[in-house]
Amino acid sequence: MAAKKAKKPAAKKPAAKKPAAKKPAAKKAAAKKPAAKKAAPKKSGAKRKPNAAFMKPLTPSPALAAVIGAAAQPRTEVTSKLWAYIKKNGLQDKVNKRNINADDKLREVFGGKKTVSMFEMTKLVSKHLK
Predict the structure, then answer these.
(1) What is the pTM of this model?
(2) CA 20 to 30 Å from 79, out of 35, 39, 95, 123?
């Protein structure tokens, strides 16, 4: 018959130290810290003025004028009209919404590219503004 192995007694763990009692002096020291300064209140009556560079009317090239119109417009308005054209004609890619699939008019603006990302679009459109 097989002899049973004798179990070794478990080693005793040292007694855990009790946490020290809180000192009342620590509370007094925390109370002496200066209060954090509050931020200055914002002026509610003053509206932010747009940057003059964005509001300067720019003349579009003939290729871009076919999409947004020939009138001189600020850069912000050009972008808004371009997005309106893209959404109206369903040119935003269905799978990757960051891409724009160019039709014949936009292909001239995008330098012959069939698909352009929305970030690249602004770079390509800026070449058509004077």
Answers:
(1) 0.59
(2) 95
Give φ, ψ of 101 to 5 degrees. -90, 115
Domain that holds residue 76: 56-126
| Average of per-residue pLDDT across 104-127 | 93
122 touches 108 (CB < 8 A):
no
Longest dimension (CA), the chain: 105
Residue 46 lies in a domain: no
CA distance 95 to 36: 49
* Residue 106 falls inside a structural domain: yes
Does residue 95 lie in a domain region?
yes
Contact assessment for residue 110 and residue 102, using Cβ atoms and an 8 Å cutoff: yes
How many domains, the chain? 1
Are 32 and 101 in contact, with CB atoms under 8 Å apart?
A: no
- Looking at per-residue pLDDT, the higher value among 25 and 7 belongs to 7
* CATH number of the CATH domain containing 83: 1.10.245.10
Helix-strand-coil split of the chain, %, nearest 5: 35, 10, 55
